[in-house]
Batch of 2 targets.
Target 1
Amino acid sequence: MIELLTQIADCVERGKVDLNSKYPPDLAGKEGAYELTKKALDTGLKANDILNDGLMTGMNRVGVKFRDGKIFIPDVLIAAKAMKTSMELLKPYFISGEVKHKGSIILGTVAGDLHDIGKNLVSMVVQGGGWNVIDLGVDVSAEKFLNAANEGEANVIGLSALLTSTMQNMKGIVEKVKNEQPMIKFIVGGAPVTSKYAAEIGADAYFAEPQGALEYLNSECV
Amino acid sequence: MIDPIVNIDLLQEFEIDASDIQISTENAGHSLGYKLGQTPEPVREIIENVHSNFSTHLKAKTGFRIFNYSDVEFGKDYFKIFDTIFNTGRIIAKQLRTSETAVIFTATIGPGIEKKSKQYMSNGDMLEGYLWDAFGSDAVEKVCDILEEKLIQVLASQNLNITNRYSPGYCGWNVTEQQKLFSFLPKDFCGIQLSESSLMTPIKSVSGLIGVGRNVERTEYQCSICDIEMCIRRKTE
């Protein structure tokens, strides 16, 4: 049983989606995350264990490697595909309540900015860490963030910006939402953003990479 | 004595043949962060697939407007064309300070690559979508390189050089200043539209400014002038 979970974690880490995946070459022709997850469910393993000890373990390794500069964006995307394929099999268990997300986070790229890769990476890594993501997309206004916050599902918002200029829009968003929802936390990221800037605009934390964001969510927002 | 060619207001627009936009698959991997020759197999395979197909989705255009030297002024943290002041900030202004006049330019590869990328992403193929997008980003920079070469040709006989290109949104120059840049160009120049929130359509488009003068030069790397420490391009250089 434990072996199966280890294999699932390895498949996610190495981006082995399913039996048909040619990569990585040493796993060609072998079962991937999809088949192993299915097998784990069929053999009676709890969906929650598959999530925690299989998928999350694998994706956590990916996040750490990305943080340490050992892998790059394409590698994260390959791993995320394997994770997502298995997550589809766990969906019914989320719906039934047998498996619960750790919490929900609202994510969006700020108004005036169309760059979404950074946001998507955070989305994949935090989903892989057991979080539900409410993705508002790109070019998101303060109003939209506020409306999403008012829905009450999430207690944390993640803002992304790639440009020095659009980064400035983070301030207005934080102010507007915190004005009505003072308890909601903000994490910010993106190429020009710094922890100093995050503090200046009243955000709760800044992260240069998604793994840091996940670790913050797990420690401060559960 | 400023050369006569800068003593006119010159506007030109070009269509760029897709075959002129060359992107090597090795460089594509390198720009994603991999060391040369070390792009992993699945990524390399998709890069090669994108590489052999992307040119059919390109509709590249570029164009520029050179201003009369007497209509342009450069300051410590700004430049001015006629009565319009562009607040570039000090980083860019410093790079332009020896310029005698300026060129406003735009470049685009059209909407095809963006459409292809979105198709893949909406089907859940994030890697393919990302790599199409990355190729699009490289391609539009190549169009800008071609523009620079055209400018150099236009200005060379007059012993005029150009600076690097600078765009709103980078190095502290606010992206909303694109509105000012576009106000000096004809409507739909190069097929690019600018939204009220200063986003260009097609997305894979670039606008900006290049300084022109006898004592200016282009430099190979610009990371040293920029304060974005986490930029992926900085990491891979």
Target 2
Amino acid sequence: MFCVYYILIPLIVFLLTFVMLKVKYSGAFFNIVGSLSLIFLLFSSQFKLSTISIIEFLPNASLAFATSNFSFIFATLVAFLWFVTVIYSMGYLRTLDDKKENKFFMFFAISIFSALGVAFSSNLFTMYLFYELLTISTFPLVSHYQDSQAVSSGRKYVLFILGSSICLLLPALILLYSFTGTLEFDQAQLVANNVPRQMFLIIVLMFLFGFAKSALMPFHFWLPGAMVAPTPVSALLHAVAVVKVGVFCLYKVFYHTLGFENFYHLPYFKNVLIIISSVTVILSSIIAINQDGLKKRLAYSTISQLGYIILGIVLFSQTALLGASLHIVSHAFSKITLFFCAGAIYVVTHKKYISELKGLGYKMPITFSCFLIGSLGIIGFPFTGGFISKWQLLKGSLEAGQPLVFCIFLLGSFIAALYLLPVIFTAYQKNPNFEEASISEAPIYCLIPIIITASMSIMIFFCNDFLIEVLRVK
Amino acid sequence: MPERISILIILIPFIGALLFPLLKHNIAKYLSLIVSMLILFLAIFIFSNILNNNPFEYNLGGWKRDVGVAFWFNKFNLIFCIVLSSIYLLTQIFFIPHYHIIYGKKLTKFLSLQALFFMSCFGLILTADIFNLYVFLEISALSSYALIALGKGRAYVASLRYLILGSVGASLYLLGVGFLFAKFGTLNIFELQSIVQNQVLGRSTFVSLVLIILGLLLKMGQFPFYIWLPEAYEHSPTSVSTFMAPISTKVSAFLLFKVLLGVFSISQIKNLLPESTFFVHLATVSIFYFGAISIRQNCLKKMLLCVLLAEISYLTGSFWILSKSSLSAFSFHIISDSLMIFAGFVCIAAIEYLNKSSQFKDLKGIGRKMPFTTMCFILALLSLIGLPPMCGFFSKFYIILGAFKEQHFLFGASLLFSSLMLVIATYKLIPILFFEDYKKIASSRDVPLRMKFVLACSILSLFFVGIFSGSLMKLIS
Amino acid sequence: MKSFFKNIILGQFNYLAAVALILIGLYAVTYKRSFLKKIIGLTIFQTAIILFFISIGYKVGASAPVIPHGKGHEFQNFLFQNPLPQVLMLTAIVVGVAVTGLALALLEKIYDEYGSIEENEILEQLRKDDA
């Protein structure tokens, strides 16, 4: 029963902001209130499990919500980062003197609504519904600046995501429904009984590529393009909400719907899936090294880290799955820190390219130290949350008998160091231009969220027992 | 009681059509509004009655079935009637205050023709006699020809072309009916069904089936007989195409269902026409074709007409798959598609009311000046693309489900392709609508309130049908 | 040969005649350039179908389906043609008349507008308007 309340909160925020669109600061206000109340509700729920089914659309496919441990963690993550991002956006948009602030916050709220809808969905149909809703609601955010760049990147966004979900995901759903007669999550047994072998392979591939939000290559092209959006959008949506929804859906589909047992006798196919994900991991990291734009580099880093998560899922072992879910959490915090820092740099200096950042470290020490903490989280350095998730992933790869994947994980971390640490080095070089310039630290509204998320990514390391207990799959 | 007044669904617009030319303009306008309201209430009343009791038959003039004309009222017929009458009502609400600007002196004649058109559509849905069906078909055709010709200029040529092609189609249908009558001696669908059930069907039945199908396909606007459709609906006045475009093609598609499956059973048709999958392939090709050209259009109306043509092919394809699930999908799609196309056309009418043109180059920045209207149009397009929870998603889902179950994978793929093409076309539209600055009209007024009401009703109906599609499907199948 | 002639051609002459007229009508609708000739072709087409229908109801040696009354005629002869197709065809004829009337009215409007009733000339003008 309660899960509907969680989902309704951002919807109410959206409606209130819509009604009071002309009132100054109304969007920010409602969003802060909404996110705080959501966090409060989630923490006080003590992770009780409940389900509710609202309307039956088809036989065995209704609009239904259910809570589970993983949904709760994911929803808490989204809610917490919603709050943090709203504060950050206030600083960002005010400093850049943005006129369309309320519209921005309105679409923000409905994107959170869709993300929560996916998190709490209890069958494939509801998940698909909110997945599509998420695409539509994030589109106005991506094309916020409404210039020609926004048009072209918005086109890529819509084309890749809607195109893949209409052409790959929808037929996969329909095929599944036509064979098993139901769209519930836990239909591994039915799938084993009813779906013929070739169909199964095709359905798996269609699901894998159909969730283009998980930015699996070659459907990743929308992600770097979406960096023309304001940084809070890139931060929350493309480091946390949109892409994490994509891998969350993949997690649910592969673990619950398709079922690990069904892959047991398909060793070659499993290897194919592993190769696809590994290519994403390595190739995007290598591309990231070449990028000079800071946000572009972070975008390719996101693609690579999402590849980690997908690789964890297709290893088909319990520990790897645990590692994947942990990585969803830890990567969210680390990456959002990095994006916040990138945005803060832009707000203060209007610089987007890494080569222009020489010597900035001395002027904005707090920002860059948080950047360092975030990078260490991505790399998987001890004492950050990334270390925990990478540890579980490595354990999982050995458990699944894939030593090559073990090497790929390590290689990925190494390359991550290669593209993240140079930013720090560049920032702390001496640069005479900046010595006299009156560049101060980032505005306070931006700074506080950065510090919060950076410290959270360290705290995860110390709270890892709790998280592992909650996320462990039987 | 409902049996006795059920014929009024057809009689009321008929009497209205006769009365309107005799009255003064203002009285006629409001009388037509009242007529449409009456029909809607009547349809809802009979429908709620049928939900509890059985479907019933009304014999015209009390003559029994084998010598007279009978009308058949069952759940699906009445749902379709409700949809049609609500379209009638909404069109009237939308256009009444400025009909006199569009038509001037011809207003009462327009109202009369409109009432005749709706009467004939109701008759087509409800009748159970195949010759009566021909008569109603011709009445609807005649009123369409005249209504389209009200557009002046190019509309005359378009109407004449439509006339020629439509009459050829209706005559082919008549010839087919003639064969059936010569062979079996009765014209009532139920009588024919009972006679045909136990027979081995020979060549003359095959010929009649082919003729009827050809005639109805021509009326429906199925590829390759669709040539009259884009011209006719583009050059007709907007107030005409708003109600005609959603209805006439869907009603003809429904006739295909009624005549073919009312008389014959599915297995008999499959025996008579072993190549029936030819039609599915035809539909697939046409969906690919129309999907591809819909991107290249630069006028809202033309784009919507391409979508309409593709949707007609959805109907043809899902009918000729001839399985239970695809036929229920067919019925659902008839209803949801009429609503969607109507919503789209109403939005275009609203845009044209303020903007006087729906060419893309004249639409720059409309989204900022008329946000409500533009949002409604985008929602209608999203429903046509097939985004949940609107009805378009469910109709596509059911059709593709029916196609996949019968191994017609290419047909399902073509549906997805046309959705993709519509996404691209919508995406071409969005920057023009929202991202530019509006230069023409200085004032920032939006359309009048009654138009907003109609727009809201049509879009809400899309959501409504989508959300309750589950129960709707249970009723239909 | 003679039986072929007798059974197929003479025996089913009405069908052959109807089909021939249908084809003539369709030919006129498709290939003639003048809209007037197309409308004439359409009328031929519809009339052929009506002819086909009525010819179905004919019986050898039957009289018109009218019950005779009045002096001098008694109700003796029970052999009537089937009245049903004739009645139906009355309706069809009326429909055909209405369609032809409407078509001719449209044609007059087209002539006022474009000054010609030849299809190719009208298409030329339309293309010029488009450009």
